[in-house]
């Protein structure tokens, strides 16, 4: 039985990956930081199948102990301060968790289980300002947020441990991927949640930022398969994972609102609070290498993804209609 250690298992990607690995017969260890109230929403259905280890990415001792306990064949380092907008008000925390702690995780593996295969969750945010389109493994980085800068560090330290210590370390440069388990502050989920609540009469407007930014949005359930495929190769390498299609935030609004028979223009309010100090105008990925070398294929398209998210949020809002869910961002 193969053993995997996942950091960030309570998040969107971690929950899909845990599900996928359990189905493949893995023994799955999940690192979980202490929270004052439980946050198992994404993993409630598989909670009893995961072997939980308490730890925090910023605490090297806890990571060494986690690797010692799990003795993993594969380590998926998905934990991060992952919300770009929060990285301006919290730049140091973002640097500690999203950048420096990647070294903590790599050190824990190097010290306790150096033959474990290591996956680092890198991001298209590293490309930032448009240098070339579409963006591939060879496109230079020009990050535009403290988060993007932190991910560039995480990417290069992973490459460095591969080259310095001959570790099987891969960096997956994933473009935006979404699902019904996406955090409520990210724009897709913020929109689909608002659509559901507006449709049910629980909300009357949606305050939002830049409608012109272009993103390459895919389905998280497809993307976690690419993570696993990277660790099944003969040689460690870095791969871009994307759909190769981009849409504006305006397109997203249109697809989501029109799905329930509404016109987004009747409900949105542009709010400067949601406009970022520096924007990434356009992200479009070229994942030819992943398709050719990993045999990775996309299954869910953009409209299908947004419809799936609206349906899930309608279900959820109906169930929670008595409670008020307030999205902070
Ligand atoms: P989420 O924000 O949904 O999940 C982040 C996870 O990290 C949560 O489980 C969170 O725990 C955990 N975490 C945060 N800080 C710490 C810490 N100090 N110690 C331990 N755990 C911590 O992110 P996603 O699932 O969307 O993304 C997974 C990874 O992929 C992230 O690294 C993200 O930056 C990266 N990425 C995501 C993309 C996307 O479009 N989704 C695209 C490219 C990269 P808790 O539940 O306690 O908050
Ligand atoms: P992003 O995702 O920053 O690309 O990072 P997000 O959904 O937050 O923003 C996408 C685009 O939408 C614009 N936008 C808004 N965004 C939010 N959150 N809220 C709004 O009200 C709003 N209005 C407009 C943003 O300006 C931006 O252009 C995600 C995260 O998952 C990262 O962890 C990951 O690395 C990248 O994707 C790839």
From TrEMBL:
The keyword Ion transport does not apply. This is GDP-mannose 4,6-dehydratase. It catalyses: GDP-alpha-D-mannose = GDP-4-dehydro-alpha-D-rhamnose + H2O. Keywords: Lyase, NADP. One of its GO terms (molecular function) is GDP-mannose 4,6-dehydratase activity. Residues 5-309 form the NAD(P)-binding domain. Its EC number is 4.2.1.47. The keyword Isomerase does not apply. NCBIfam families: gmd (TIGR01472). Catalyzes the conversion of GDP-D-mannose to GDP-4-dehydro-6-deoxy-D-mannose. HAMAP family: GDP_Man_dehydratase (MF_00955). Its cofactor is NADP(+). The gene is gmd. CDD domains: GDP_MD_SDR_e. InterPro entries: GDP_Man_deHydtase, NAD(P)-bd_dom, NAD(P)-bd_dom_sf. Belongs to the NAD(P)-dependent epimerase/dehydratase family. GDP-mannose 4,6-dehydratase subfamily.
């Amino acid at each position: 039985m193969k053993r995997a250690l996942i950091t960030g298992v309570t998040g969107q990607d971690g929950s899909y990956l845990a599900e996928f690995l359990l189905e493949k017969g893995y023994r799955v260890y999940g690192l979980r930081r202490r929270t004052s109230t439980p946050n198992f929403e994404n993993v409630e259905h598989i909670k009893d199948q995961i072997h939980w280890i308490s730890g925090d990415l910023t605490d090297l001792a806890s990571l060494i102990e986690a690797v010692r306990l799990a003795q993993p064949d594969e380590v998926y380092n998905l934990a991060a301060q992952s919300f770009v907008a929060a990285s301006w008000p919290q730049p140091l925390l973002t640097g500690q968790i999203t950048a420096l702690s990647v070294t903590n995780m790599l050190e824990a593996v190097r010290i306790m289980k150096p033959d474990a295969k290591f996956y680092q969750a890198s991001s298209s945010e590293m490309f930032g300002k448009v240098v070339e389109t579409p963006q591939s493994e060879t496109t230079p980085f020009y990050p535009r947020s403290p988060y993007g800068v932190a991910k560039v560090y995480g990417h290069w330290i992973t490459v460095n441990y591969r080259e310095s210590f001959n570790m099987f370390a891969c960096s997956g440069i994933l473009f935006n991927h979404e699902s019904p388990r996406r955090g409520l502050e990210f724009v897709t989920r913020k929109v689909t949640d608002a659509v559901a609540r507006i449709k049910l009469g629980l909300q009357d407007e949606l305050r939002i930022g830049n409608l012109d930014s272009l993103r390459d949005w895919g389905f998280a359930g497809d993307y976690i398969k690419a993570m696993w495929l990277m660790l099944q190769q003969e040689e460690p390498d870095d791969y871009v994972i994307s759909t190769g299609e981009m849409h504006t935030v305006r397109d997203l609004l249109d697809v989501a609102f029109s799905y329930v028979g509404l016109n987004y223009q009747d409900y949105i309010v542009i709010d400067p609070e949601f406009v970022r100090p520096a924007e990434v105008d356009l992200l479009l990925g070229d994942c030819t290498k992943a398709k050719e070398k990993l045999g990775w294929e996309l299954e869910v398209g953009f409209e299908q993804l947004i419809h799936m998210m609206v349906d899930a949020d309608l279900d959820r809002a109906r169930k929670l209609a008595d409670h008020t869910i307030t999205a902070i961002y």
